[in-house]
Write a structure and sequence with these properties.
The structure is a single chain. The chain has 4 domains: 142 residues, Rossmann fold; 75 residues, Helicase, Ruva Protein, domain 3 (Orthogonal Bundle); 89 residues, Zinc Finger, Delta Prime, domain 3, CATH 1.20.272.10; 99 residues, Orthogonal Bundle (post-AAA+ oligomerization domain-like). It is 49% helix and 8% strand. It is built from 19 helices and 7 strands. The protein has a 5-stranded parallel sheet with strand order 2-3-4-1-5, with helices on both faces. The chain has a two-stranded parallel ribbon with strand order 6-7. The relative contact order is 0.07.
Length: 434
């Protein structure tokens, strides 16, 4: 029997789950299908994100024949069969999986068929096509990136599978516990194939109760998916406890504790949560003390999202270790929060006349920008003048810390500038108004 993920493949472009930047109304692949002006393309992204589904839906929506081959295991003879079919019946949509492994012999055979339009090639790969695919193929295809599906996307697909009586599991009475559904949508890291296959295994291997209902619990899904929901409980409290513990461990510079809590999130497959939390930590807790650490964290998160789990754990571990051992400063967050507190309390005031927009005719007659001093016309590109509104002229929001060389240096410059403007930088004048 064909797997559930195979049976539930969409036959129309409208039925594709996720990838709306490509197949949504008005987007590029949707437009190609609507106009029946298909061009060969390469879809690249993580496994189970819909590359095959997009190809299947394109063929189904356009009524073209659809064939699937693998560049690594199928030979030139298999390509010749597809080419003959194209000659006999017209255009064929060919999904060529692992296209990055296409050798020169098969490539040379395909190129003229792509040029003539006899075969619409849809290459699928998890590798970066700009690095791993021959330029001759790249130049004849459009390259589209597919992204991991969101939990909501996977939830939609699970609902379809549970209600579809023809291709899905709708012929059985199945009750999927909320915690089990949540685990399927989050622990699969956007891989719909894994979620559907785990769901089918759970349903087929669970005996119905005395009312004929197949009850699927979190424990059953954990067993079928082979991933424990270690960071979540029924109410979600433990999940947020682990996230909180991760940030507090980094803030407290405890490398081992931070690695432990991140590993619990990794084991639960919570890659998006980890990435978001590390970005928050980099700017909230390290911030001005070491902006390079923030840059490194952004790079690590980008790499992790491209790699997916389990490989994503490697750049994430590097980031956590650096963030733990880095000097800490929350001065940036504290400064903007202090400024926001003034704004929210109604302490704003009018923008000084010399700072107002003066590009339009008649601005000078209104006094706009007339007395503005252009700093680059003065020594050291600086001149004393008022920037804050009159009611906030003595407000001080930023209080630099000295926990890292970078912020220490910025703090020295800040102190000089404040003194030149007639303000002594002391904690007592924080947010004082004249």
């Amino acid at each position: 029997m064909q797997p559930l993920a195979y049976r539930m493949r969409p036959q129309r472009i409208e039925d594709i789950v996720g990838q709306q930047h490509l197949v949504g109304q008005g987007q590029i692949i949707n437009r190609m299908v609507k106009a029946k002006m298909l061009s060969s393309m390469i879809l690249y992204g993580p496994p189970g994100t819909g590359k095959t589904s997009i190809a299947s839906a394109i063929a189904g929506s356009t009524k073209y024949a659809f064939r699937m081959l693998n560049a690594a295991t199928d030979g030139k003879k298999d390509l010749q069969i597809v080419a003959e079919e194209a000659k006999m019946s017209g255009t064929v949509v060919l999904l060529l999986d692992e296209i990055h492994r296409l050798d020169k012999t098969k490539q040379d055979f395909l190129l003229p068929l792509l040029e003539s339009g006899a075969i619409i090639l849809i290459g699928a790969t998890t590798e970066n096509p700009y690095i791993n695919i021959n330029p001759a193929i790249r130049s004849r295809t459009q390259i589209f990136e597919v992204h991991p599906l969101t939990p909501d996307d996977i939830d939609t697909a699970l609902t379809r599978a549970l209600t579809d009586k023809k291709n899905g599991l709708g012929d059985q009475q199945v009750t999927l516990a909320d915690s089990a559904r949540h685990h399927l949508t989050t622990a699969t890291n956007g891989d719909l194939r894994s979620a559907l296959n785990a769901l089918e295994l759970a349903v087929r291997s669970t005996d119905p109760d005395n009312k004929g209902v197949v009850q699927i619990s979190l424990g059953v899904i954990e067993a079928c998916l082979q991933r424990k929901a270690v960071s979540a409980d029924k109410d979600g409290d433990a999940h947020y406890d682990v996230i909180s513990a991760l940030q507090k461990s980094v803030r407290g510079s405890d490398v081992n504790a931070a690695l432990h809590y991140m590993s619990r999130l990794i084991a639960a497959g919570d890659l998006p949560i980890i990435c978001r939390r590390l970005l928050v930590i980099a700017y909230e807790d390290i911030g001005m003390a070491n902006l390079q650490a923030a840059e490194h964290t952004v790079a690590a998160v980008t790499a992790a999202q491209q790699l997916g789990l389990p490989e994503a754990r490697i750049p994430l571990a590097d980031a956590v270790i650096e963030l733990c051992l880095s000097p800490k400063s929350n001065s940036g967050m504290s400064a903007v929060d202090a400024a926001l507190a003034d704004v929210n309390a109604g302490h704003s005031g009018d923008v000084p006349l010399h700072l107002k927009d003066a590009h339009y005719k008649g601005a000078a007659s209104l006094g706009r920008g007339v007395e503005y001093k252009y700093p680059h016309d003065f020594p050291n590109d600086w001149v004393k003048q008022q920037y804050l509104p009159n009611g906030l002229v003595n407000a001080v929001y930023y209080q630099p810390k000295q926990n890292g060389r970078f912020e220490t240096a910025l703090g020295e410059q800040y102190t000089k500038l404040m003194a030149a403007n007639g303000h002594a930088l002391t904690p007592e004048n924080d947010s004082k108004k004249s």
